[in-house]
Every structure is written in C-alpha cells, then in structure tokens.
Amino acid sequence: MRHPLLLLILAFVVWSGTFLLVYATQATGCSLGWHNDEIAFWRSPLRLILIVLVLTSLVAIVGTLAWLRRRHKPAAALQTSSFIGEVKTYVAVAAIFSTAFCFAGVFWLTLCPL
Amino acid sequence: MTENQSIHHNPIALHKALDRIWGTKPGWGRLAAVNHNVIGVRFMLTALVFFAIGGVLAMLIRTQLASSQSVFMDAETYGQVFTMHGTIMMFLFAIPFFEGMAIYLLPKLLGTRDLAFPRLGAYGYWCYLFGGMILIGALLAGVAPNSGWFMYTPLSSSVYAPGINSDVWLLGITFVEISALSAAVEIIVTIMKIRAPGMSLDRMPIFAWYMLVVATMMLIGFPPLILGSILLEVERAFDLPFFDPTRGGDPLLWQHLFWLFGHPEVYIIFLPAAGAISTILPVLAGTPLAGYRMIVAAIVSMAFLSFGLWVHHMYTVGIPHVALSFFSAASALVAIPTAIQIFAWLATLAHGRARFSIPMLHIFGFFFVFVIGGLTGVMLAMVPFDWQAHDTHFVVAHLHYVLVGGFIFPMLAMAYYWVPHLTGKQPVQHLSHAAFWMIFIGFNLTFFFMHLTGLRGMPRRVFEYPPEFGWEVLNFVSSMGSFVMAMGFALIALDFILLFKFGRAFRRNPWKAGTLEWAMPTPPPPYNFASIPRIDCRADLLDPDVIGPHLAAGRGYLGIPRDDRMEVLGVNSVTGEPEQLVLLPRQTFLPFWTAVATGSFFLLMLFKFYWATPVALAAVIVCFCLWSRSDASSFDDDAVPIGHGETVPVHIRAESPPSYLAMVLTLVADTTLYISLLFGCLFLWISAPNWPPENLQNPNLWLLILAAATMSLGSIGSRISKKSAHMALVGNGLAFAGHLISTGLLISIAFYSLPSPSGHAATASLFVILCYVALHGVVGSIFAAHALLRALRDHDMSVRALDLKIGGLWHDYSAASGFAAVGFCLLLDSLVHGGGL
After folding, report:
1. pLDDT band at B585 (very low <50, low <70, confident <90, very high)
2. Do B293 and A79 touch (CB under 8 A)?
C-alpha cells in the first residue's frame, strides 16, 4: 500500500467500504428484525450499529487524512511529491464530506420497510 | 556506410526503417494489424457505423411516436427497435468510440510509439466487431432483443421472452464487453508504464489522468454486468433460477447487477469526453488549463461517488428510507466534482482569449446541453421528485441531455480538432456551422419538449398513446426536432467526406497546441515518433514545433532501430524515469483467429449447441497459448543502451514489467466479479421470497476443504519453483497436479454432491460458485503446464522469472477463491439452518 496512487484513493476506498458495510448491515438487520427492539436512547440495535459504523468510518477517514499529511515527503521529485500530496488532501477532504453527507440518515430515517 | 550509420545521419532513412518495422502489411496483412493507429481508427469508424444504425432506429421511434395510435410499427417491432437503439448507442457506439479515441491518442500524448499490449487491442477490436455483428444480424433477422436496453427480468426471462432475442443481447454484449475489459487493462498499463522518460505523474497530460480514472472504472464496473449476463443466460439456458421468485430468485438481483455497471457507465462515457474538453479548451483559449490538480482530485472523487448511486435507478422498488438516503445523497454529491470541472473550464476561458472555431462551437453546445442534463439529474436524484417522474419521458429527456451533451457535442469538438491530425488535411467547406446549429436546435427541440411530455405523465417504452391525453403536439414537435437533428448529422458526414476529398494540407500543429501528438508528421506514421522525447515540464505545455524536428532526426531515445524489433520505453509509474526496454510483438493474425474462436463459442451458446462449446473453448485456449510463443526471451543482453548514454534491462528481466501489472489488474476485475457473485447470493438470502429452501443440502464440507487445500498447492508450487532452476520442475509439477485434483474434486461436488441446481436459487448459487473456482483451477493448471514446459526446455531462469511471477499471482488468487467458497458454503449453511431466518 505504498504506491502514491493507492494512497491518493485511500480515503475514498474507506468510504466505499463503509458504503457496502452500512448498506449490507441495514439490509441484513431488517431481514433479521434488529430494528424491532429498543435498547438504549429509544434506539433499536440496528440503528445503534449503523451509527457506530458511520462514526467509526468517519474517524477512520479523518485519521487517514491526518496520516497522509504526516507522511514523510522524499526530497527527490519534490514537485511530484507536492502534486500527489495536494491531490491526496483534496480527495480525502471530499471523502470526509461524502461520508458525513451520505450516511447522516442513519440517525433519524426509517430503517426498514414498514 | 552501414544501415545504422545511414539512419543515424538521415531522418528519411530512419523513417523508412521504422515504417518497415511498425507498418501494417497490405492486403490480407491488414487482418494482422496490431498498430494502435490502425486499431484506434477501426474502433472509431466501426462505432460511427453503429451510431448511424442507432440513429436510423431513433428516427423510426420518433416516426412512430409523432402521432397517437400510429400504425407505423407494431408493439413487437417497436420493442426491438427501441431496445436496439439503446443497446447500440450505449454498447456499440459510445464506449467503443472513446476506446478507439484513447487507443489512437494516448500513445501520442504520452510520447511513445504504441500501447503496452498491441495484440490485446487488436483482439478487443475483433471481439467488438463480431459481437456487434451478432446484434445487427439479429436485428436484420427480426429476432433482435426486445426487453429494453437494460433487459429487466422477468421480462427478459425465458417465461416472457422464450425466443433467442434475449440470448442475443446477453451473449452479444458479453462478447463485446471483452473489448471493454481488454481496453481497460491496456489503457491503465500504458498510462502507468509506457510513457516518455521524465513524464512523472504531475507532468502527464490531463487526458491521461481522465483515461486512467475511466479505465479503472471500467475494470470495476463491467464485471457486475458480465456476471449478471452470465447468470441470466445460465437461467435461460439451464434453468438455474437466480431471478425466478418462485424458486428463491429475485428479479431485483438483475437490477442491482445491471445498475452497478449502468450508472458508472454514464461517467465512463462522460469522462473521456471531459478529458478531451480539458485538452482542447485550453488550446482554443490560448492559456493553460486552470485547476489541473483540483480537476484530478475531482475526477478521482467522481469515480468513487459514481459507484455509490446505482440504486437511484431503483427508487420505486420498495427500498427503505434510510437506504434511499444513501443513494440520493451520493447522487446529489456527484454534481460537485462535475461542477468543479465546469468552473475550471470557465476559468480557463476567462483567463484566455477564446478562438471561436468549430470545435469551440461544439464545446458551447456541450456546456449548454450538459448543464441542463446535470440539473435535471439533480432533480431526479431527489427521491420525491423521482417517484413522480420515474419511467416517464422526463427521464428519457434527462438521459439524452446528459449523454448527447456529455458525449456527442464533445465528440464533434474532438472530431473537428483532431481530424487534421488523422488526415493531414484541414476543412475548406463551410457546412460545419450550419451542421452545428441544425444539431443544436434539433436536439433541443426534440428533448426539451420531452421533459414536458414526461411531466404530463407519458410513460417510457410505450409504442402508442391515446389522443385524448394531450401528448400528441409535444410528441410531434419532438419528432420534427429529431429529423432536423438527423439532417444536421448528415451534414456533418458530408462535411467530413468533403474534408477527406478536398481538404487542404497544413503546416505542423495548426491549433498551436502544447501536446505531443502534434510533434509528429500528420497523418501519423505507425511508429508515431522516430525517437522518444524526454519531458521536462507538464506534457500539455510543450512546444511541438521545436520537439517534432528534433525527434524526427532521431535525437531522442531509441533513435536507431535494432534488429527489426518494435521497441518502446517502460518507465517508473511515479517519476517517469526509464526502467526497462519493452519489446512489443510484431504484426500477427493471432488476435483475429482468437476472436474467431471466441466468437464461435458465443455462437454455439446462442444456437444452443452446448455440447460443442468445449471445442470452441479449447480453440480459444490454444490460440492464447500461441500468443506466448513470441516473447523477449531471445534478447540476451542484461542492459540495453537506449540513447543519451543510458542503459536499461529488457522488460522480462525488469523489476515491474507491464504484463505483471496487467495480471494484477485482471485479477482486480476477476475479484470484483467474484465479490459481486457472493454478495448477489447473500442478497437472495436477504430479499428473495421462498427462503430458506426446503432441505438445503450443503456440499460435502470436508471434500470442499480438500479441494481448496489442493488448490493452494498451486500457490505453494509456484513459490518452490522460484527458488532455483532445479526446483522449477518440482514446483510447477506440484502446482499442475494441485490444480487438476482440485478441479476434479470441485466438479464432482458441483455435479454429483449437490442437489439439482435448478431446484432453488440457493443450490444454484453454490453450484455457480463451485464452477467459478473450478474454472480457475483449469486456468491455473494451464499456467502451471506452460511453466513446466518452459522449465523442461531449460530456458534461462531469469527469462522464466516473469512467467512464474504472473502464474504465481493466478495460483494465489485461485487458492484464495477456493477458501472463500468454503467460507461462503459455511456461511450460507449457518444462515439457513442456524436460525438466521
């Protein structure tokens, strides 16, 4: 996972994984009836799981951005390195925003077919 | 004077020598062409022929809908016509055209002589041509697909479509998609490895970035469609009920698989066009592209987001609110990276002084039409609006605004910009302006009013409508507009015919562009550059007028031909520094014959001669094995001079040769297909009716574990064989035996241990998964046998190292897929029997 292009897309790879995981968990939870009980804060287990997944992903992507920015930049090919660094940052910021925006619905929207 | 000395002093002699090596032979030799210029032009011309056919079908549709209750076509004919219109435009025109454009342009923009795998490009072209011919043949025979270009089940299932119409689509399109996948691999590897020295990632022309992203999207996007087509064909041919709800299948599985491909497809079509605009617009504005880095970030983000909105085609199927919100949000979000590009283009125009030439006129058309399409796209991304407009002509209008705006207008801008490069001639006629305005006005007349038709409730895909509904006037206006547009396209065709016939010659670089494709004679010679340039700044800010003569004189890299070999340079994918000398294969008929063999497999499937398909498959395998006869193993030198006092190894001895990356990419596509299959089967468990199946009998678990374990012998064997020349025989023998045994075990489990797969989708899922792993065992045994033969022939170990590395990747993947199959069987068993439901 050291190739600069892979690092460039890393944040959105986490977003994609989150997308699959959250969508699959929601569908599975509905199928198994995890939305029918209330366990804490008047929330069903399914909603709590989804919220935890989304928040964890958000933290993971923010952590990815911080890690990418801390990484050592080699002196050679400084211009290339600066290019990759800048694009990586834009992409990671876009991934953070996308995660927050796409999955905000898990906090309040109807989880399963009525 | 020797030949080399003569070449060294004489650019004409150099040109003749390179032309002899790289050129396509006349007569039947044309079938052996592998050169990217030839293949690229063939792709584009063939796509334009299909475009014309699709256009005629569109005229038939508009004629039918011009009045209510028209008797011009009956329902069946109309079904075939509108299905084929969509299918041709999407699969046989839009994607192949930009593939051809990329195949033609990329090596030139990257400063090299050809693509990484010329034979693969030729094979892809023949697959595309033959697959397209199957579809057009079916149209002429009156048995064309008739279930819509998206082939929704159950309409396309054998119950409601018992003829071969749907099979034509499923097999023909899968055949065509081979070309898309091969182009994706070829484009990625070329951009990553085959560039001019010094062209680091930040110096790549922006078009290369666009194509890198698009090709990666194709690699991930096409496998779900191919999987869906295989599953539906298997259901139709062998009654495995993946989409039949009475036996545990679900029609929605098809929709998921189709749109997992179908929505990224829109961006796969738009992004190459956007790449061309990002290349052309700065030239016509006379200023560098604004926001190069931001655009790269935008297209990468767009690529990911485009995979997260496939369900916005399925808002009305009964998906819970929260899941709808994921897709609705992603659908709205994707407008942001699109807008970033549009604002970057506007900023570029604002910084420069735009030349109002014909390409610029078409770019204006693009801006106007595409922005409207984008805005209606955001409207449709909102669930409540979509519920009202779903499956109406509003959606038809929206998709045409996006696709015609996002592809046709940029394509015409590209054509007028690059046709001088293709032909060496500039236009002299004045039809271009009239043609543009006819297309522009005709298009808006047709499709703007279609929004209103849709908002007034007219559904898609109907062949007639009642006169009292008030749709007739709007439809008539749309039909009139479409004929104006068609006349505009005819005028464009006439304009180009006149250009080819009477166009005037021009001096180098007529647009004063800063990209490398203009640093060569026009029309381009088959080798592009007599010598390879070194790049020291961004590759769209160069001076082709200075570089061109310098390269033509052979003063760049590889300026002297060597032993009639087709040589290009392989570079480090990040820094662009030379790493290897890549020897390309010479002209050959093998791609043609391999495509013929592949086509015969699809035709045998289509006409239900299933018993003969193994023969066709064997022919395909033999043909591919013959490809491996010509490699660089006869090149003895460890370090080869490339000019400027530098030496590099030949690619087979290099650390990271192009073919290794190609295998990695192939496995990425393969993994996507496998994951789609596993997720698809789990989706059936979650959503399909009639689950759990009665008496689901899992395969013999211990036998399955044994099969996976023997499959991993391939992996172990490949590692042993890399240790020393002596161990090669043992290691490859072990790998070969492991694959054969595991394949035998898997086939026996699938065919003898499982209950009939036609009984329930759960059994069918297990059956297909086992067959998938067994197929990998068969291919793995071929890899191992090939390595074994080469070890027996006592090839130099350093030569065989590449074969072993590539085979090793396959063996590892096969073992992993075997264990994943075991895991899936356990999971399904626990879900079905362990109280999961």
Report:
1. very high
2. no
In b/e form, how buried is each residue of A27-51, taking b as 16+ CB within 10 angstroms?
bbbbbbebbeeeeeeebbbbbbbbb
> What residues of A are in contact with residue B575 (Cβ under 8 Å)?
76-77, 80
Yes or no, beta carbons of B301 and A94 under 8 Å apart: yes
- Are residues B573 and A3, on separate chains, in Cβ contact within 8 Å? yes
pLDDT band at B836 (very low <50, low <70, confident <90, very high): very low
Signed CA dihedral, B41, B44, B46, B52: sign only = negative
Question: What are the tens digits of pLDDT across the range A36-91?
Answer: 777 666 678 999 999 999 999 999 999 999 988 887 555 556 788 889 999 999 99
Cross-chain Cβ contact A4/B201 below 8 Å: yes
Does the beta carbon of A6 lie under 8 angstroms from any beta carbon of chain B?
A: no
Residues A105, B300: C-beta atoms closer than 8 Å: no
Confidence bin at B815 (pLDDT 50/70/90)? very high
Q: To which residue do tokens 């020393």 refer?
A: B724
- What ipTM goes with this model? 0.94
Question: Does the CB of A74 have a partner CB in chain B at under 8 Å?
Answer: no
Average pLDDT over residues B434-455: 97
> What are the chain B neighbours of A94 within 8 Å (beta carbons)?
297, 301, 336-337
- DSSP state letter for B608: T
pLDDT of residue B141: 96
**B142: DSSP letter:** T
Q: Which backbone phi and psi does B250 adopt, to 5 degrees?
A: -155, 120
Q: What pLDDT, on the 0 to 100 scale, is given for residue B60?
A: 97
Q: For the residues of B377-436, what is the DSSP string, one character each?
A: HHHHHSHHHHHHHTTBHHHHHHHHHHHIIIIIHHHHHHHHHHHHHHHSEE---SHHHHHH
Residues in chain B closer than 8 A to A95 (CB atoms): 301, 304
The two tokens of residue B721 are 């064989």
CB B80 within 8 Å of CB B140 = no
What are the domain boundaries of chain B?
692-833
Topology of domain B692-833, per CATH? Four Helix Bundle (Hemerythrin (Met), subunit A) (1.20.120)
Structure tokens at B811: 């063996």
| SS3 of residue B570 by DSSP | strand
Look at B320 and A24 and tell me if their CB atoms are within 8 Å.
no
* Residue the block writes with tokens 């038709």: B453
H-helix or E-strand spanning residue B569: strand B566-571
Task: Look at residue B584 and give its three-state secondary structure.
Answer: strand
Closest CA to B205 of B184, B191, B186, B222: B191
B686 to chain A: nearest residue by CA? A31
Domains of chain A by residue range: 9-107
Q: Do B301 and A4 touch (CB under 8 A)?
A: no
> Confidence class of residue B655 from pLDDT cuts 50, 70 and 90?
confident
Query: Which of B304, B338, B656 is the best residue to mutate to test the A interface, defined by the most A CB atoms within 10 Å of its own CB?
Result: B304
Nearest residue to B730 via CA among B792, B782, B798: B792
**pLDDT (mean) for B271-293:** 96
Give B197 to chain A, closest Cα distance, Å. Answer: 14
Per-residue model confidence (pLDDT) at position B837: 40
Contact B574 A26 (CB under 8 A): no
Confidence at B501, pLDDT banded by 50, 70, 90? confident
pTM: 0.95
Q: What is the pLDDT of residue B797?
A: 65
pLDDT at res. B632: 61
Average pLDDT over residues B418-435: 88
> Quick one: closest CA in B to A114, which residue?
B320
- On the question of pLDDT at B135 being above 50, the answer is yes
Mean pLDDT score of chain B: 92
CB of A85 within 8 Å of a chain B CB? The answer is: no
